[in-house]
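Action item from last week, closing it out:
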Amino acid sequence: MEIIISNSSMEPIYEQILGQIKAMILDGSLQEETLLPSVRTLSRELKISALTVKKAYDCLERDGFIVTVHGKGSFVAPGNENLLQEEKRRGVEAKLEEAVREGRSCGMEDGEIRELFNLIMEES
């Protein structure tokens, strides 16, 4: 599992870890029940605080992406298709919101944006 941390990013390090692991789970790079590196191991590899990795793992567990078994480690949560689908839908929604904002910033009216969206849907 390769995680790349950018110290120059405005995004907190734990969120960078969280986002990259979540992306690997969503795209299938990390299969369900795969053992993740321990908090200490990952913190040593990334040369960051173990508390930062722990915070990322805690968020992943809270969101249902991983499960932690005391004394055994953290694993990718068993297939929760609904969770994965919802996460993908949120991504699509965010991209659509961004497209609408971009259109409005260019002076497009809502009707023009809808018309463009419908054209794209017909062609796809």
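Closing note: The chain has two domains: 13-76, 81-123.
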